[in-house]
């Protein structure tokens, strides 16, 4: 009964969040751009599958800041705090006890490669938000990583259904090189918006630039607008 009650509360809170941000989500370029730039069949959001300036790859190149944190499952924690009603600190077991989502989506790197149809498993950021209940003042999140990396997202982007914190890719535990044990994925944005080795999600009352955004990368990062740099 306790597990069912927890799930019911998450579902109820997620529906409230959806109602609060649904119109803003519909207006974002990754789902409503009248002239998206790219080629190929359309994806689930009606965008061309391959964004402008991208090349398909089968390999998964490794990009980082020159330091790959080695975080064991016993050491790993996820803090979710800031402008929320119920801040939490999740252990690996807590994280795995949350509703798990399997999805297939594309991965677009700003360095011009795209890896298509990657099978993922993890937890929706929307479900994590439902757990902590963002305050009405919350408008953005800043994601923090174990390697000190940060990146920002508006809530209308962060709460989309295919934004996940993944622990599995290609039906295998997420490798350390790619951000394991847990990283965020943002299929509708360039991949730097999805923090590797994620350790904290901070809800904010206003936008705050992250590591690459402070160094000239786009604040919004829409692949179908070639929105790479500010």
UniProtKB/TrEMBL annotation:
Domain Oxidoreductase molybdopterin-binding: 71-212
InterPro entries: OxRdtase_Mopterin-bd_dom (IPR000572), OxRdtase_Mopterin-bd_sf (IPR036374)
Top-level taxon: Bacteria
Pfam family, one: Oxidored_molyb
Chain spans, region Disordered: 24-48
UniProt-recorded name of the protein: Sulfite oxidase-like oxidoreductase
Organism: Dyadobacter psychrotolerans
């Amino acid at each position: 009964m306790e597990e069912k009650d927890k799930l019911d509360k998450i579902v109820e809170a997620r529906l409230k969040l959806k109602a609060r941000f649904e119109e803003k989500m519909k207006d974002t370029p990754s789902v409503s751009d009248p002239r998206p730039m790219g080629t190929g069949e359309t994806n689930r959001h009606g965008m061309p599958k391959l964004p402008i300036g991208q090349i398909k790859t089968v390999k998964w190149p490794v990009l980082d800041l020159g330091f790959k944190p080695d975080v064991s499952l016993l050491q790993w924690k996820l803090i979710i705090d800031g402008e929320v009603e119920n801040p939490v600190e999740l252990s690996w077991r807590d994280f795995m006890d949350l509703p798990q989502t399997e999805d297939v989506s594309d991965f677009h790197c700003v360095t011009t490669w795209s890896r298509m149809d990657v099978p993922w498993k993890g937890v929706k950021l929307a479900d994590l938000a439902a757990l902590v209940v963002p305050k009405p003042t919350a408008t953005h999140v800043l994601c923090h990583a174990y390697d000190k990396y940060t990146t920002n997202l508006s809530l209308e982007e962060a709460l989309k259904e295919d934004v996940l914190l993944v622990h599995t890719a290609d039906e295998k535990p997420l490798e350390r090189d790619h951000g394991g044990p847990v990283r965020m994925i943002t299929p509708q944005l360039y991949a730097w918006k999805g923090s590797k080795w994620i350790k904290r999600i901070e809800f904010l009352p206003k936008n705050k630039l992250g590591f690459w955004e402070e160094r000239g990368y786009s604040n919004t990062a829409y692949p179908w607008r070639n929105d790479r740099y500010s």
